Every structure is written in structure tokens, then in C-alpha cells.
Amino acid sequence: MLLDYFRVKLRKEAQFWRDAGIISDVQYQQLTQRYQIHNLETATSYRFVFTLMILGSILVSLGIITFIAANWQLITPEIKVTLLLSLLFATNIIGFYLWQQSIKTVLSGKEPKGRKSILGKSLLILSALLLGIILSLIVQTFRINSLNYELLLMWSGGVTLMAYSLRLSMLAILGVILLLTSYFTFLSELPYLGNEINWALTTLEHVPLLLWLIFIPLAILCKSRSTFVLTAIAFIITLQLNIKPLQYLNPTSAFPWLASFAFTLPPTLLWSYNDLLFSKLRLKVRLLYFQQLARGLTFIFFGILFYILGFHSHWVLPPSNFLQLNSSHNASLNIATVIDISLLSLIAVSQWLYQIRTIFNNWTNLIILSWITIAGLIPFWYYLNIDIPGAPIVFFNALLTMMAISLICSSIQEKRKRQFWAGILIIGLLILTRMLEYNTDLLLLSLVLTTCGVAVIGLGMWFEQAKGKHK
Q1: Which of 49-58, 105-114, 169-178, 265-274 is least confident?
Q2: Which residue among 199, 278, 334, 432 is the one 20 to 30 A from 145 at the CA level?
Q3: Is the residue at 278 inside a domain?
Q4: Is the pLDDT of residue 233 over 80?
């Protein structure tokens, strides 16, 4: 979307430059060919039609469900399965044929026909939706004792295989969403499962590892920034839920090192990620800047971590657990978590060794390494015996303030307004939430709000002046 907005602005500017005589017709044609400006209307039309086709696929799926439900009792189980599988195979074959024809047209140097490509992708997405419908109907028909999270996990596995085969970003995103849905369903049903252990339970205990090993490469194969960001966020969330690190922020915790890994593994893996590690895909990922996305998520992770640890409640009373898990499952879940931590740590070490030459040549790398070290030492705060009331609260609020100031200062040098507004947002959120946390007087709150407003106006004017000086 941002690229299309840039191309629209560029087309208007290029036409103005040509009419004003700033550039020649040849240069205008070169700009048009380089940025594919002449295809803007076609791309917009294709996106609109593709959205309609996706909506139509969902409606068709609902229609099929309704039709089958209306005549379900009149059809024998064998015919039911045959009809459903035939429908699945038909949509897959036709969709793959149409999608492949559009690719062959592009490779031959001809102008692709958007209708075939859109229809093919829509049928493939429809087949992915039908896969889940068929799995649920087969379970109901033959009364298979299958839990909801098992069904969702099988659906996610099938969609992920389709995404790897076809390299479609929509299927990759659907696979991540289904896996997360299966994981959260598993967590909600875990207290009622008893001592039963099956393949799905064992698989879902390793969701953070699966996300990093399966869906990060899939995002690169599909050349999908959305899939990469969604997978990274899902990885961080599932790792925190498996370890539950906040419960170890007390002097009686038996395994504080688990919390250290929960706080250090996400930034270590994300910051050390390098597109060039995938040497066979180097040409395909060079222009996608997944590394920039990963490093941006690292800053966001540290910002959220320092913000949460700046609350007074985490350092007074032991926080309650995120999930009350059955005692019979805690042992197996902890073992699975230790396995994930070990393998992810090996990946992180290998990634850092790959870029060991550049670690100490950049001050940003040194800052990140210091933050990772601080995050790893957080669970051992009580073992330091620092008898200063509120010391960790002041420390983490100061770290967050320093991060905000560094973002504002770097925004001047790099001329990026996003970093400026991120710093302003952090400072404003920090002041407001801390004042509400300590139940300050309304007059003081009014004074602080007014001061913040004046400060924002002043910082905005200073930003524009400083940016003008650096031009």
C-alpha cells in the first residue's frame, strides 16, 4: 500500500516535471518503466477484484456448508466423504492450473492476464478453507474423538504445506493464524485434559520453535513482510506464555534463569537475523529488508519490556501467573520449554557468529548487547541485595526515557518522523501511566498534561528546525 501511494505521488510529480520542462520525455518514460507507473490502475483493479474473489470464496464455502447441512441426513457417510474430497481436489487442480498459467505467461515475457491469476489464487484459498470444513465434517461423520485444538492443528499443517508448495502469502498468513488459534485453544482446554498425552499436545508445546523454524523461512519464500511480522509477534507471545517470566520476579523463585531466556531470546534472535543467511534466496530477499523489520521489532520488544517492568506492582508482590496450568502438565511443558530454549539459543549463537565482525563496529549493536545483558539479569535482581526502595522502578523508567530520547535524537539525523513520534509517544505514555498508577492529584495531573502539550509543540518546532539545518 505504501509503495502504491509512493507511485501515485511520483506519477503526479513526474507529469508536473515533464510539463514544466524539468525532465525530458525520455526521462519521464524511464521513470514510468522503472516504477511501473502505467500499471497503477491495473494493480488497483486487480487488488479490488482479488478482495471480491476472496469474499466470494468465503461465501461459497458457507453456501456449501449450508447445502450439505440441509441434506446431511439423507447422504451416506461414504458419499459424503467422496463428495467433499472431490470438491477439494477439483478446486485445488483448477486453481493451480490457472495460477500456473499466469506464471508461465510472465516468464515468457508476455503481458499476464490478471483474471486467470486472481481466479487461480482465489480457488487455492477456497481449497484451504474447504480443507478445514472437510476435516471437521469427517470428524463429525465418523465420530472421531478429536479435540478442537487437534483439528485446528491439522488444518494449519495442511495450509502450511500448501503455502510452501505454492508460495502464496495469503496461505502463509492463514497458516500462522490457524496455528495461533490452535495454540490458544489448547491453553484454554489444558486444565481439563487430565494426564493424556498425544501428538497434538506435544506439537503445540513447541509452538515458539515451530514458528521460528517453519514460518520465518516461509515468509522469505513467499516474500511476505506481513507474514514475517506476524510470525515474529506470534513467536514472542507464545514464548512468553510458555515460560511465564513475570512469576519468577520474586526472591523465592526456583528457576529464575527461565525468565532470563524469555527476556533475552526474542531480541537476540531478531536483532541478529540477517537476510544473507538464506544464501540460496539472497536475490529474492535483498529488496525486502526483513532485517530492518526484525530490528524494528527488537526496539518495540525492549520498549514494552522496560515499560512493563517500570510498574510498581512487579517489585512489591509476586505477580499472578498468566495461566493456571494443571500440575500434571507442568513437568512436560517445562521440559518442552527447555528443549525450545536450547535449540533457539543455538540458532541465536550461530546468527551472532555470522556477523561477529560487525558487532563492535556499530554503537547501536553495543547498545542492544547492553540491553540484552540487562534483560538477562532482571530475574536475579533480588539476589543482588540492593536495599534501595524503588530502585528497579526508577532504573527501568530511566531506561525507557533514554530510549525515547535516543529515538528523538536519531530522528533528526536520519530525518525520520516515525522515530520522532515513537519517542514522543513513549514519553507521553510513560508520564500519564505513572501518574495514574500513583493516584496523583488532579491539579498536578492537569499541570503535567499542560506541560506535556507545550513540550510536544516545542519539540515539533525544534524537530523541523533541526531537520532543516541537516539538509
Answers
A1: 105-114
A2: 334
A3: yes
A4: yes
Grid cell for residue 457: 509543540
Nearest in space to 95 (alpha carbons), one of 46, 51, 53: 53
Chain center to CA of 3:
20
Under 8 Å CB-to-CB from 171, ≥6 apart: which residues? 124, 125, 128, 159, 160, 162, 163
Residue 379 DSSP label: G
Q: Are residues 199 and 319 in the same domain?
A: yes
Do 172 and 280 share a domain, yes or no?
A: yes
pLDDT digits (tens, 9 = 90+) for 418-454: 787 788 888 888 877 877 776 656 566 566 667 666 6
Across all residues in the chain, what is the average pLDDT?
Answer: 76
pLDDT of residue 283: 43
Distance CA(269)–CA(198), nearest Å, equals 30
Q: Is 267 in the same domain as 352?
A: yes
pLDDT digits 0-9 by tens, 109-134 = 454 555 667 777 777 888 888 888 78
Specify the 3-state DSSP secondary structure of 91: helix
Q: What letter would DSSP give residue 319? A: P
Residue 283: CB atoms within 10 Å:
7
Helix, strand, coil abundance in the chain, percent, nearest 5: 85, 0, 15
Is 168 found in the same domain as 303?
A: yes
C-alpha distance from residue 83 to each of 68, 79, 144, 152, 326 (Å): 10, 6, 19, 22, 42
Q: Are residues 56 and 170 in the same domain?
A: no
**How many angstroms separate the CA atoms of 286 and 358, rounded?**
19
Task: Report the pLDDT averaged over residues 403-432.
Answer: 78
The candidate with the shortest Cα–Cα distance to 41, out of 53, 49, 31, is: 49
DSSP structure class, residue 64: H
Q: Which residue has the cell 513513549?
A: 426
Question: Any residues with CB less than 8 A from the CB of 142 and at least 6 apart, and which?
Answer: 77
In a domain, 4, yes or no: no
End-to-end Cα separation, the chain, in angstroms: 28
Residues 399 and 469 in one domain: yes
Q: Dump pLDDT digits (tens) for 234-263.
A: 999 999 999 888 888 777 767 788 889 999
The CB-side HSE value for 361 (13 A sphere, CA atoms) comes to 4
Torsion of CA 319, 372, 282, 230, to 10 degrees: 20
User: How many structural domains are present in the chain?
Assistant: 3
Q: Which domain holds residue 110?
A: 36-144
Find the angle CA(150)-CA(155)-CA(157) to the nearest 5 degrees: 95
Confidence label for 465 from pLDDT (cuts 50, 70 and 90): low
Residue 139 and residue 150 share a domain: no
Give residues with Cβ within 8 angstroms of 230, minimum separation 6: 173, 176, 177
Instruction: Judge contact between 265 and 342, C-beta under 8 A.
Output: no
